[in-house]
Specification:
This protein has 541 residues and is α/β, with parallel strands linked by helices. The chain is 29% helix and 26% strand. Helix 1 (12-21) crosses helix 3 and helix 7 (200-211) packs across helix 9. Bound molecules: adenosine monophosphate.
Length: 541
């Protein structure tokens, strides 16, 4: 029997219409370095309409991809609304990527137009020569346009483009709610980054989860500080959840260091925030020296890598409650979030709060042991976490990767246990990429670059704990016989091949890199050697 319900598609257009009208007086606040500028959602809706008209005039049709290369700011929000709600596909590009990766992603994504903040235009300019499909570059804010000399793309100023365009746009509901609305790339352990295309439906349903009281509990009274970059998993879906709930948004733009963040918090008084542990670790160190007024914040959601209890307790000394959550680019990202059950207090509550959290209702999960069998959810047995659900990716953009899927389940690469009441604890990750300051560093990319040096016989790179960045790379190198290459020279060699922030500080020269039975570098052994102090490690400043 068919239901009698209407089949209205779930769409970004619905969220934009609703958020910019019903919640037209909510606002987006953007930090300028000296103060805050703000606009109401009604204004943002009008500007998004103008942007959509301007993009149409530039030839954006159907599911054309529109890239953004921007910080968290009002104009980026306008793109978040306009692009999917006009039927095109939003593609936020990671500002922190090394040029080759950036070029790969923008090319693979097929971006036709790129919106870019003037402050990061030089970074984009470096790769435009490799992106012949980019027809238009739209520059937001002051910029040195001379860096674009020689580019074949037409260059526009963001405000000029919006000028004179109509304030309303007939937002487009997709024929099929499973059509792509936006995409983000994830960095793989090996090979090229992989594209995840989010659908109108997945974003809509995920937004509902974010708003739920056992999600981020986001509502119209909230002011949400968006520290997580808008190029990382669609800023955890927060901008769309804000349109759905009417929560205001507080954007730090490029001012992500502790002092301006504290200024922004005192000025804009956010109630809720989300970000990776490293940002909060830095803020905590600053607050411990310079107490500031954090009292507006009722909750901070921390995820992206494991949130240590010491960080939660530290922030709570300043009156900021922390909620731990787990997710991935492939999971939109909200997979689990840690709120202790009602009535549980004190030390008992910590048992729940330090876990990666309770699985969301729409996220089905199972743990798979090394032999491929499903292990019990008894809180003890450990296996690789596999998930499926309406906002979990079922494939990658133009990239079959059957090894990432198991009979319809996404293999997360994360290893841990689940209690019978659905709390997930991650004990390890099967991936070997290094997470530094919330961003991945590919150990394989570093190894490949190192092994291109004529004096290097073998090189392995693993992540080791670092107080400031969470993790940093340790390079373990076997010199070719008869050569005397040192750490300084190798780092200089890498410096022209990888992004500056990926360069290892820690170096160890060894006779042999430990190997597994099938001849792969055995990184677990290297990590253990490092932890045991068994490696002779030189640390460069
Ligand atoms: P990304 O796709 O860059 O967001 O990275 C996703 C990965 O980050 C996951 O597969 C985990 O390995 C890791 N991760 C995310 N959240 C957590 C968390 N709360 N604890 C531990 N690892 C996490």
């Amino acid at each position: 029997m068919r239901s009698t319900m209407q089949e209205t598609p779930l769409s970004i257009a619905t969220l934009v219409r609703y958020g910019t009208s019903v919640h037209g007086s909510s606002e987006v606040v953007t930090w300028t370095g000296e103060g805050a500028r703000s606009a109401t959602y009604a204004e943002v809706g009008r500007r998004a309409a103008r942007l959509a008209h301007a993009l149409r005039a530039l030839g954006v049709r159907g599911d054309d991809r529109v890239g953004t290369f921007m910080w968290n700011n009002q104009e980026h929000l306008e793109a978040y609304l306009a692009v999917p709600a006009m039927g095109a596909v939003l593609h936020p590009l990671n500002i922190r990527l090394f040029p080759d990766q950036l070029a790969f992603i923008a090319d693979h994504g097929g971006d036709k137009v790129v919106l870019v903040d003037g402050s990061v235009l030089p970074l984009l300019a470096k790769v435009l020569g490799q992106l012949p499909q980019v027809q238009h570059v739209v520059v937001n804010g002051p910029a040195d346009l001379s860096v674009l000399e020689g580019t074949s793309a037409t260059v526009h100023a963001y405000e000029d483009l919006l000028d004179g365009q109509p304030d309303e746009f007939d937002w487009v509901d997709p024929d099929d709610e499973t059509d792509a609305a936006a995409m983000c790339y994830t960095s793989g352990t090996t090979g090229n980054p992989k594209g995840v295309a989010y659908s109108h439906r997945s974003i809509y349903l995920h937004s509902m989860q974010v708003c739920m009281s056992d999600g981020f509990a986001m509502g119209q009274r909230d002011r949400v500080l968006l520290i997580v970059p808008m190029f990382h998993v669609l800023a955890w879906g927060t901008p769309y959840a804000a349109m759905m709930s009417g929560a205001s948004l507080v954007m730090p733009d490029r001012f992500l260091t502790p002092e301006p963040l504290a200024d922004l918090i005192e000025t804009a008084k956010p109630t809720l925030a989300g970000g990776v542990p490293t940002v909060w670790t830095a803020l905590l160190a600053y607050l411990d020296q310079t107490p500031r007024d954090m009292s507006s914040l009722r909750d901070v959601v921390v995820g992206g890598s494991a949130c240590p209890r010491s960080l939660m307790e530290g922030l709570e000394r300043h009156g900021v409650h922390v909620t731990h959550a787990w997710g991935m680019t492939e999971t939109s990202p909200l997979g689990s979030i840690s709120r202790e059950p009602g009535g549980v207090e004190g030390e008992d509550a910590w048992r729940y709060r330090i876990t990666q959290g309770r699985l969301a209702a729409s996220v089905q999960a199972r743990l798979v042991g090394p032999d491929g069998s499903v292990v019990p959810r008894d809180g003890t047995a450990v296996g690789e976490l596999e998930v499926r659900g309406p906002w979990i990716t079922g494939s990658y953009v133009r990239d079959d990767d059957p090894a990432k899927f198991d009979d319809g389940w996404l293999r997360t690469g994360d290893v841990g246990s689940i209690t019978p009441d659905g709390f997930l604890t991650l004990t390890d990750r099967s991936k070997d990429v290094i997470k530094s300051g919330g961003e991945w560093i590919s150990s394989v990319a570093l190894e490949n670059a190192l092994m291109a040096h004529p004096a290097v016989a073998e090189a392995s790179v693993v992540g080791v704990p670092d107080e400031k960045w969470g993790e940093r790379p340790l390079a373990t190198v076997v010199r070719r016989e008869g050569t005397e290459v040192g750490a300084d020279e190798l780092r200089a060699f890498l410096a022209v091949r990888v992004a500056q922030w990926q360069l290892p500080e820690r170096w160890s020269f060894v006779d042999e890199v430990p190997k597994t039975s099938v001849g792969k570098f055995d990184k677990k052994v290297i990590r253990r050697q490092y932890a045991d102090g068994a490696l002779d490690v030189q640390t460069l400043p």
